[in-house]
Design brief:
Blueprint lengths: L7 E7 L2 E7 L9 H9 L7 E6 L8 E7 L4 E2 L3 H13 L11 E5 L2 E7 L4 E5 L38 E4 L3 E6 L8 H9 L9 E9 L2 E8 L3 E3 L3 H13 L6 E6 L2 E7 L6 E6 L1 E7 L10
Parallel strand pairs: 2-3, 4-6, 10-11, 12-14
Antiparallel strand pairs: 1-2, 1-17, 3-4, 4-5, 6-7, 7-8, 8-16, 9-10, 11-12, 12-13, 14-15, 15-16
The structure holds 2,6-diaminopimelic acid.
Subunit structure: Homodimer.
Protein name: Diaminopimelate epimerase
Catalytic activity: (2S,6S)-2,6-diaminopimelate = meso-2,6-diaminopimelate
């Protein structure tokens, strides 16, 4: 039987980005890719991202997070999930600590300071974006990641070329388009996600700049498909738009699930993401869920 059987989880969302939170602090347990897929397959614990809390690694931090996509792959960043974890560690009776004030979370990509804005709204310091082609990573050297070469040619969307590429601890490719809603993302998303220029695949964004402080965004997520919102994509998109001179350093990013406020802070180059969280229900994993999952 999986050691995860009967463990408690929270089903949450950040702007409709489906997040399941699992607290494994104080245990040596780890979630395998097969277990993550099994959790995603149950409608009660279904997720776009599974956020797993582990004991802190770096002294002074509150928890280490491992982030899983629906397909069992792992990511270094999830903005909406990080806010959900912050809510859980602040308000949930079994996950909260005694600490008041901000939290310091960590992933394999780095440290994420979080501040509470109101009961359910949090600001996450998502760190500094990376632009070097090998840090994103891209397959081939690119002199300027504001406009990269990709291999895919879509006959019915020839304008989808020369996207921007940014790492927010996870890889993002952003196409600036006239109408972000005009594309069949479930069809073109997987093709672009697997472009030969992207050795670790990427999250694919279609961004429409409405005003210098307002962007409309649709996202196809690596390993999870089309989601109602993606926080790290919103951060990557604001940074890419600002680098191209399309916006300033602060904008509202409107996603199908709602709005995020993103600021690319001048003083230290970090990206701040502010948005809501919502608890849907809690539950425990049924042992039957893991039959066949290693
Ligand atoms: N929804 C998440 C991002 C998940 C990214 C993941 N799909 C990846 O493989 O990088 C967010 O709010 O930032």
């Amino acid at each position: 039987m999986s050691a995860l059987a009967n463990r408690r989880f929270l089903k949450m969302n950040g702007l409709g980005n489906e997040i399941t939170v699992l607290d494994l602090r104080g245990t040596p347990l780890r979630v395998s890719a097969a277990e993550a897929r099994a959790i995603a397959a149950d409608p009660r614990s279904r997720f776009d991202q599974l956020m797993v809390l582990h004991d802190p690694v770096t002294p002074g931090t509150d928890a280490y997070m491992r982030i899983y996509n629906t397909d069992g792959s792992e990511s270094g960043a999830c903005g909406n999930g990080t806010r959900c974890v912050a809510w859980a560690m602040t308000a949930d009776s079994e996950m909260r600590g005694t600490k008041t004030g901000g939290l310091m979370l960590e992933t394999k990509a780095g440290l994420l300071p979080v501040e509470q804005v109101s009961e359910t709204v949090f600001t996450v310091d998502m760190g500094a974006p990376r632009f070097a082609w090998n840090e994103i990573p891209l397959r081939d050297p690119q002199p300027d990641t504001r406009e990269i070469d990709i291999v895919t040619r879509l006959p019915d969307a020839p304008e989808l070329q020369k996207p921007s590429a940014v790492s927010m601890g996870n890889p993002h490719v952003i196409f600036f388009v006239k109408d972000a809603a005009a594309y069949d993302l479930p069809r073109i998303g997987p093709i672009l996600e697997h472009d030969a220029m992207l050795p670790e695949r990427a999250n694919i964004s279609l961004a429409q700049v409405l005003k210098p402080d307002h962007i409309l965004l649709h996202v196809w997520e690596r390993g999870a498909g089309q989601t109602r919102a993606c926080g790290s994509a919103a951060c990557a998109t604001l940074v890419a738009a600002s680098r191209k001179g399309l916006t300033g350093r602060k904008a509202t990013i409107s996603l199908p699930g709602g709005d995020l406020l993103i600021e690319w802070r001048e003083s230290d180059g970090h990206v701040l993401m502010t948005g809501p969280t919502e608890l849907e229900h809690e539950g425990t994993f049924s042992p039957a869920l893991f039959a066949g999952a290693a």
